Amino acid sequence: MLTLKGDLVYLRALEPEDLDFVHEIENNEDFWEISATQTPYSKFLIRQYLENAHRDIYDIKQLRLVICDKNDDAVGLIDVFDLEPKDNRAAIGILIADAKNRKKGFGNESLKLLCKYCFTHLGLHQLYANVSENNEESIKVFENNGFQKVGLKKDWTLYHGEYKNEWLYQLINNVH
User: Fold this and answer.
1) How far apart are CA 136 and CA 123, in angstroms?
2) pLDDT of residue 23
3) Model confidence, pTM
4) What domain range includes position 138?
5) What Å distances lie between residue 44 and 18, 81, 107, CA to CA?
């Protein structure tokens, strides 16, 4: 089992027991804008997803980890996705589920742990993130972890009938 530990959180692999937690997140319409979700997911589909979550990142091009606090409570999810082994790059996404757990450093430390893992263990050269222009909390987390704002994608996402801009952030590993 993959365990990445920090002072505030640790990251672990998805387990079958995470069914209700993942189901709640995937079906929370407040998160659909950042996840590009448009329809609810059934527990059946999420159970199937969890059953396949152990598959190799190079096979499914994605790794989803649970963010846990010191009390072993799941507080969020962090993803590596759209892995491009040829170009040694991948996208990163992070979500702290409950607003009461935000602004406590959980996201910041989780991102730091995952970036180190991606550069050290996966040998990636570059990580990137797409962040809604008005998502100030995420912008701070990515910028605090060395991600550089490299471009604005205008009218990139359509959400509730309104087009929204999205920032593209990159972090390039300059250690070879």
Assistant:
1) 30
2) 73
3) 0.85
4) 3-172
5) 13, 22, 29
